[in-house]
């Protein structure tokens, strides 16, 4: 009998925890928090986050975030480009440079506008003229001038997903 009560309490606790909360204001201006959808006349309906108390932080070192904000890096490449594209991406990863990877195939118009042709890989660092083709010494020089580290301080790739804006702000 005790085990049945315990199981029932556990089931109820799990169901209560799984409920999505609603925050809304009634006609009198009173704020309500419920697990049921608000009535049709409710104002300022919100679905508050139920995540735990987390401190979110960027894993990039502070200095790298500052450089990335001032000089965002975009790499134009595509699958099957060959050794030039894979070497270009490997250089950025080895140095710990956060970058946006753009697909040269799907972003042909942007690539043509940027460089005047479709040669890849292309590296764009901030507002500097784009570098076409992979020459490690030229790419390293441009990254050095921008202030990016020579080696990855975290030992892992910090890459924005493809298709995001290259000039996205990174919070310090």
From TrEMBL:
Pfam families per the UniProt record, alphabetical: DUF4124, Glutaredoxin
Domain Glutaredoxin: from-to ranges: 73-128
Region (Disordered): 30-54, 151-172
Domain DUF4124 intervals: 8-48
Polar residues bias spans: 151-161
The name this protein goes by in its record: Uncharacterized protein
Native species: mine drainage metagenome
